[in-house]
Amino acid sequence: MSLDDLDAYLEHHALHRAESGKGGDSIFTPFPDSREVDGARSSRKHGWNKSLDEPGWIRTWGAFVEGRVVGDVELHGGDIEATRHRAFLGVGVQRPHRGTGLGRSLMETAISWAREAGVAGIDLGVFEGNSRALALYSKLGFEIVGTFEDAFRVSGQSITDIRMVLDLRK
What we know:
By secondary structure, this protein is an alpha+beta fold. Helix content is 29%, strand content 33%. Helix 1 packs across helix 2.
């Protein structure tokens, strides 16, 4: 994605976050509302333009339908030199487009890019109740390395976060 896509990206994030914990979805984000938009705008403006040897780089791929972003995947590089060989992954697909293979396609794109870029590993967190995401990550080769009980409290609910990694050195 480029800065030209930033508003569409932020609109997608607001819509996707609003689905968390509603309409049969388990809670899947620690940001249930859109109060973080200014921070997201600023971090993307800076992170999308950073090279991989700079702290805080971000790479984002979006899925567009009729000019709207309906899904995205992001890789975030480490903020300190000792962690820049790894990336943290986040992915989100709006409800009407789930189950279509879009999430898998976005993930495969990010994983392929990371391999080619020389990233050694990808880390992610997934909330315990998000069984569809957990199944997808496992199919793509991510392995569970730990769980953190009460890692988040969202809307008064304690959430266990499952940490997963994909070793790209293999």
